[in-house]
Amino acid sequence: MEEKQVKKRRIVLIPVPAQGHVTPIMQLGKALYLKGFSITVVQTQYNRVSSSQDFSDFHFLTIPDSLTDSDLHSLGALPFILKLNQVCEESFKHCFSKLVQEQGDDEIVCVVYDEYMYFSQAAAMAFQIPSVVFSTTSATAFVCRSVLSKVNAESFLLDMKDSQTQEKVFPGLDPLRYKDLPTSAFGPLESIIKLYYNAVNIQTASAVIINSASCLESSSLAWLQQKLQVPVYPIGPLHRAASASSSLLEEDRSCIKWLDKQKPSSVIYISLGSLALMQIKDMLEMAWGLSNSNVPFLWVIRPGSIPGSEWTESLPEEFHKLISERGYIVKWAPQMEVLRHPAVGGFWSHCGWNSTLESIGEGVPMICRPFTGDQRVNARYLESVWRIGVLLEGELDKRAVESSVKRLTVDEEGADMRKRAIELKEKLEASARNGGSSYSSLDNFVNSLTTP
């Protein structure tokens, strides 16, 4: 009797074309590849991931006629994502149809799409292939988006304009205040509510994967499991499950040699993400505060992060003097390696979810300076729930900067935070090990794809 040829199983990934979204979905791809799946990454024409050493066995596909860099600059981030979903639905169906026809020995078992690439659902439905939502943020931020997707935009806007209401805890989301909710600096509230409505409305998706762990967010994960009515798989932190480099910017490794010369736990590492813009006035206040703290610091200043300036050339001479004594500046850093370095004692961050997980994963407490969206949710949790962060709110002022840096690196409070951060690190490590909750969750997801 002839033996049946065993088909390989292929998973199609669809990332949002932004660093904070690309990093975890490529880590997910690597984790699934290590479980025996073939991986296809479907990209738009903007911000494509290159096939690096980590992804040499992945298949990359570009959706034709999608939006480009110039569309992002002319539209802005939020309208860009909304339009991308309109533009890509039909062209992705056509693209996906060819992929299905040409699959040969690789049977497509699942489409995993970033929650903001919801156009993907239509194609998966048309070809009767299961689709899975991937959330690159915390489970708590997902809960917030679900709640915000149902609010009346007009009355919520009035609440948000009232300074007293802003400070109040939002009903059902303790300890999050109104001002901590993930509204966006990248567009009007109506647009963000529309985006959230589309993103959290999982429709025909058969499951949700979240880059988080139950030791960090058990109650938010339980809320989602109950509300979504499909399996929720917390499989984070993905950088532990599958380390993979997918930086869209070139990393400057010279900072590691500089860190090698510093004392243990003495350095503040500063990196405010791949999107935030900084005003010269704020940069000067930071430089003064850092200089006055007498603490050495490694500062990532991303090219283009200062409006009207390619890099730091528009900053006054005063700035360069202030940082020359104890500071080291790079355009982009190998963040995981930096956070793992024994010289690093604190991380001043925008509190994007990847940076938050990486910092907790290395037991490094944080100075929290969120700019937009879910960063505020993460910052509040770092300060009030996990108690490993100093929240720096309001206008930047050199005294507040100096005080925050000292609280983290010099004061007893900082030592307590470091202790708690190391305890959380150990819990996260346990969840990612064989038999841990995140490890088992990934196995359960893989088994759900192989069970007829």
From TrEMBL:
Species of the source: Capsella rubella
Molecular functions (GO terms): quercetin 3-O-glucosyltransferase activity; quercetin 7-O-glucosyltransferase activity
Name used for this protein in its record: Glycosyltransferase
InterPro entries the record matches: UDP_glucos_trans
This protein's record includes keyword rRNA-binding: no
CDD domains, per database record: GT1_Gtf-like (cd03784)
Cleaved signal peptide residues: none
Family designation: Belongs to the UDP-glycosyltransferase family.
Keywords assigned by UniProt, alphabetized: Glycosyltransferase, Transferase
